[in-house]
Write a structure and sequence with these properties.
30% helix; Arginase, Chain A; 9 helices; globular; alpha/beta; eight-stranded parallel beta sheet; single chain
């Protein structure tokens, strides 16, 4: 039986040996505290992708022809800590193969592992967190690998820039950097928030995109939807600017909580993923990715975290 491919692309464009892009699904929903179902997100995303046109009008490109390898899902769910260790290890394995690594969750705690891997492999990493929630708790419900703690480690070890925030606990104010957080209510009246955010970024950027950053009128199927979110074209404009001006080294998308009665959210997530790839590779000549990645074998920085056994 043939192995499933991303968006039903032919095997010609789905082989690990020749693909420039790797997609890692992480169907995990172990620590969410309100609506459950983010573990169903990757499957809903992949199903929607199967029904998506693969020519991008805006960039006049078919990015899948760069090759997109659909990796085996990370299914470790015995504890939040073991899940993070598994995501970290798998992500880092593909980064070391000089692939453009992307991850689709799952709840946002999966990003602790992805950010950790990218931070070990790229110098001076900027993490751009596009999200409704600050996620800056050091620990929550007895774990530092809770979805409410997603950005804490990044705030300590990377250049963290938070965009679209409109929900947080007062204790998180002691952790956040007020110069690097863009609150949704301020963005609504600031014509230059995109430029100001990009000015704070270093060369190498990892994007972690929580789908609840979108306004729920646009994407209702999120674990914790919040009013007052981003709209489609302003989001694409921001992403396009980042991809054009910075070296985006990878990204993840999380917190799709599919609803049987609403398939539009699934399709938006699928379209967002493909748009982000289109922006990345439309800025490169087809053979130039290796020269633009910023990653040097076997590693271009000293690891601050030891690889963990997640078996």
């Amino acid at each position: 039986m043939n192995k499933r491919t991303y968006a039903g692309i032919s095997e010609q464009y789905a082989k690990i040996e020749t693909s420039k892009i790797v997609l890692i699904p992480v169907p995990y929903d172990g620590t969410s505290t309100w609506q459950k179902g983010a573990d169903k997100g990757p499957e809903a995303f992949l199903t929607a992708s199967d029904n998506m046109e693969l020519y991008d009008i805006e960039t006049d490109s078919e990015v899948y022809k760069n090759g997109i390898y659909l990796a085996d899902a990370v299914t470790e769910n015995s504890s939040p800590e073991k899940m993070v260790a598994a995501v970290h290890a798998v992500t880092k394995t593909f980064i070391r193969k000089n692939k453009f690594v992307t991850i689709f969750g799952g709840e946002h705690s999966v990003s602790i592992g992805t950010i950790r891997a990218f931070n070990e492999c790229f110098n001076d990493l900027t993490v751009v967190q596009i999200d409704a929630h600050a996620d800056l708790r050091k620990e929550y419900n007895g774990s530092s690998c809770n979805h409410a703690c997603t950005a804490y480690e990044a705030s300590q070890n990377t250049n963290l820039i938070q965009v679209g925030i409109r929900s947080m606990d007062i204790l998180e104010k002691s952790v956040m950097d007020p110069d690097k957080i863009f609150f949704a209510h301020e963005m609504a009246i600031d014509d230059y928030w995109m430029e100001n955010a990009i000015d704070l970024m270093g060369k190498n950027v990892f994007i972690t995109f929580d789908l609840d950053a979108f306004d729920p009128s646009l994407l209702p199927s999120a674990g914790t939807p919040e009013p007052g979110g981003l709209l489609w074209y302003e989001t694409l404009d921001f992403l396009k600017k980042i991809f054009k001006q910075k070296n985006v080294v990878g990204f993840d998308i999380v917190e799709l909580c599919p609803n049987e009665k609403d398939k539009s959210s699934d399709f938006l997530a699928a379209k967002l993923y493909y748009k982000m790839l289109s922006y990345k590779f439309s800025n490169l000549d087809i053979d130039d990715y290796e020269n633009e990645s910023g990653f040097k074998e076997p590693n271009n920085k000293t690891s601050k975290f030891e690889d963990e056994d997640y078996d």
